Amino acid sequence: MHADLSRLTHRPERHYSAVVAQQGRVQLDADANEQTAIQLFQARTLAADLIGPHGGPRGATGFRIALRGGSRELDDLVIGGGRYYVDGILCDATRPQPGVPVPAHGTADTGKEGKESKDGGDGEPAAPPATWTYWDQPDGFRDPERPGDRLPTAFPYLVYLKVWERLVTAAEDPALREVALGSALPDTAARAKVVWQVLPLPAAALGLDTGNPTVDEVRAAFTRWAEQAATPGSRLAARSEHPGTADDEPCLVAPDARYRGPENQLYRVEVHDGGSAKDATFKWSRENGSVTFPVDGLDGTWVELATLGSDDKLDLDVGDLVEFVDTGYTSRGEAEPLLRVEEVDLPGRRVRLSGEPAPGVGRRPELHPFLRRWDHHESSRRTSGRGARDGRLRHGALPVEEGGWLPLEDGVEVWFAPGGSYRTGDFWLIPARTATGGVEWPTDPARRPLLQYPSGIAVHFAPLAWIAGEQTEPDLRLAFRPLAASIPAADDAALAAEEEARAAESGDASYGAPYDASAPAPSRSQTTAAAEAAVDEEGTV
After folding, report:
1. How far apart are the C-alpha atoms of 159 and 425, rounded to whole Å?
2. d(CA 414, CA 376)
3. Contact by Cβ (8 Å): 56, 65
4. CB count, 10 Å around CB of 107?
5. What sections of 451-491 are H helices per DSSP?
6. Model confidence pLDDT, tens digit, residues 103-124
7. Is residue 388 within 8 Å of 273, Cβ to Cβ?
C-alpha cells in the first residue's frame, strides 16, 4: 500500500482481537489501521472457513462465463453478474447501471428508457450492457492490439478469477479529497480496493493439453497451479549499520546510532522487474512510495503537474527518478522503465523527463495519471552524502544482488536470499526510528535479522469455466445454500410428543396412550379446586 503510513503493526500470529484506546494518549494511524486489519482478517477467515476456498450464494452466484465468438481472432467472454467469494474476499460482478437524468428543456419525457432508438434517441447515448465482458471488465484493461491480451485461439483453455487488493489515494480518485479543507492541506484517508480480473489460462499450463479431463481433474490441476502462483518466491532481511559517512554528519543524531536519518521513515523496498535474480530489479522509497504528483497534461517529455509538492522534502528535483502511473498501469501490474527528472519549470508547474512515458500510460485523463517518486538515485546531490548507491541502474531501477548486504541510505541495508524468484509489485516495509537509531525488523535470539517473505501483494485465484469449444463451457464454480430456514408448523406427531412429556411430568395415568386431539382437556386436581373455592369464599388464599 503506497500510503503515508507510520508503520503496519497487524500480526495475525499474535491473536489480537481488538485495539483498545486509552484516554489521554496520542492517536496513531497504525492503531486505527490495525483495528481495521483485525476485523477484516476475522471476517474473511470466517467466510473462508464456512464457504471454502471459493464459492457463491445459490441463486446469486456471479461470474458465469459464456464464450462469444468474434471477428479477427477477437473472441469475447460474457461475465454473468452476481457475487463470488475467493478465500473469503467478496467479489461482485454486477455491472452498475446509470441513473435516469433530468430531461433536457423542451424534450418530451416518455418515461421509457431505451425506447426512442437503438442509440437512445435524440442524441442520447445507448444504455450500457447489463453484464461485463472480458474486454471491458472494470479492472482488466485488456487491449485488443496486444496479442498477449487476446483469448487463446486453440481449445481447450481455462478461465479463472484473479483477486487482490490495492490502495487508492486522492491522486487516483479525486472524489476522496474533501474540497472544504482547501487545496493547501494534504488529503485524508486512502482506500483499499478489491480488484478482480477474469483471465484465460492455456491447458498446457495445467498439464491438461491432451485427453479429455473431467471437471474434478481440471479443478485439481488448477489448485496445484494456483498454489504455486500465489506462493512468494523471494525473501529479504533488513538491518541498520553504522554508516561510513557518519563522521561527516555528527549533528544528525547520536554519534553511535546505526540509523542516521534525520527523521522517522517507513522504507519501502519494491520489486520492479520480476524474474530470477539476474533479471530482477528493485526500487525503494523512504516515504513508502506515497509521494505522488497528479498529472494535468502530457506533451512529449514535458509533464504538467497539479502541484510540485508542499515542501522541499516532498517535492521534485532534478535527478529524481519517477514512475509514470495510472489506473490501467497499476491494474495490469506492469513494470515500465523509470524516468529521470531532467528539468523543473516552477512557474509552469512542469517537469521534463528523460524520455516519453510508455505507450498507453498517462494518455487518458479518466485514468487519473500521476508521477510516483522513488528515492534511489543514479547520481543525486540530495542523497550522495547519505550513503545512497550510485550508478548501476537498469531501466531506472537497482539490480537485485543476492547473498550480500546492499546499502540504501543512512545505514539502512537489505539482504536478498539466494535462489529467489521475484514478482513485480512484491514489497517489504522497514520502519526506521531516530529514537532507537535502528530499524524495526524481527531478529533471532542472537539479534540476527530474519528473512521475511514480502508483505504483499497477496494474490488469490478461483477457477470459473473450462472452455472446450463453442457452446461447450463446463462450469467450475461452486455454490452454497443459505444457513437460515423457515420454522416448520407443529404436526400431530409433535403435539403428541409434547402431551406425553407433560403427562410424564404430572404422573398422569394416561401416559403412553395415543393422543386424541378431540378429547376434553384434563380436569383440575382436587387440591387446585379446593384452593380456588377458598379464594372465592374468603377472598384470601
Report:
1. 23
2. 13
3. no
4. 12
5. none
6. 887 565 555 444 444 555 556 6
7. no
Report the distance separating Cα 134 and Cα 466, nearest Å: 15
CB neighbour list of residue 344: distance below 8 Å, 6 or more residues apart: 308, 316, 317, 318, 350, 351, 352
Asked if residue 451 lies in contact with residue 278, where contact means CB atoms within 8 angstroms, the answer is: no
Q: CB neighbours of 179 closer than 8 A, spacing ≥ 6?
A: none
Provide the pLDDT for residue 293. 93
Cell numbers linked to 254: 547520536
Tell me what the mean pLDDT of segment 485-503 comes to.
82
Which single residue is written with the C-alpha cell 521475511?
Answer: 452
Give whole-number Cα distances, 476 to 159, 161, 463, in Å: 9, 11, 6
| Residue 384 confidence class, pLDDT cut points 50, 70, 90 | very low
d(CA 480, CA 56): 6
Q: What pLDDT, on a 0 to 100 scale, did the predictor assign at position 453?
A: 97
Residue 153 has pLDDT above 90, yes or no: no
How does the average pLDDT of the chain come out, rounded?
A: 86
pLDDT at site 532: 57
Tell me: cis bond preceding 156? Omega within 30 of 0 counts. yes
Tens digit of each residue's pLDDT (9 = 90 or more) over 193-221: 999 999 999 999 999 988 889 999 999 99
Strands (DSSP E) found in 234-320: 236-240, 265-271, 275-276, 281-285, 292-299, 302-305
Task: Answer whether 35's CB lies under 8 Å from 18's CB.
Answer: yes
Q: Is 447 left (phi over 0), alpha (psi -120 to 50) or beta?
A: left
pLDDT of residue 125: 67
Whole-angstrom distance, CA of residue 133 vs CA of residue 365: 23
Residue 497 binned pLDDT confidence (cut-offs 50, 70, 90): confident
Question: Residue 330 in 3-state DSSP?
Answer: helix
Distance CA 184, CA 244 (A): 39
Relative to beta strand 421-422, strand 265-271 is unpaired
Sign of CA dihedral 373, 374, 377, 382: positive
Whether residue 308 contacts residue 284, with contact meaning beta carbons closer than 8 Å, is answered with no
Asked if 283 and 374 count as a contact pair (C-beta separation under 8 A), the reply is yes
Query: 424-457 burial by CB neighbour count: b if 16+ within 10 A, else e?
Result: bbbbbbbbbbbeebbbebeeeeeeebeebebbbb
Cβ–Cβ < 8 Å for 341, 316: yes
Residues 93 and 63: beta-carbon distance below 8 Å: yes
Half-sphere exposure of 216 (CA within 13 A, CB side): 0
User: Residue 483: its pLDDT value, please?
Assistant: 87
First-last CA distance in the chain? 77
Q: Residue 427 has what pLDDT?
A: 97
Rounded to 5 degrees, what are φ and ψ at 326?
A: -145, 180
Q: How many residues does the chain have?
A: 541
